[in-house]
Amino acid sequence: MSLSAQLQQRGQALLSEQLRHPVVRGLGSGELDPAVFRAWLEQDYLFLLDYVRVFSRLAWQAPAAHLADLVDLAHPRITTSSACTGSWPRRSALT
After folding, report:
1. I need a labelling partner for 23 at 20 to 30 A (CA). Which of 6, 33, 80, 87 fits?
2. Could you give the CA distance from residue 95 to residue 90 in angstroms, rounded to a whole number?
3. Is residue 75 in a domain?
């Protein structure tokens, strides 16, 4: 069995539980209360602030040889070569 299949099998119960969550179901059906969505969005914003802080610290402490790995992990659309040469892709308002 491939690693991907093993991971999928191992995580299937958790994925099923996540898909049954009331917020996920409400988003899917279009019936989520706007106040609930706003609370989720605010919480997600706070999470992302901490995520950026942690990632910044990792980048600051990482050996130079591993910076490209962090860039690839943080944003898969930015290739290692573009990170090293400074030729960053332009992002549209929709991405």
Report:
1. 6
2. 10
3. yes
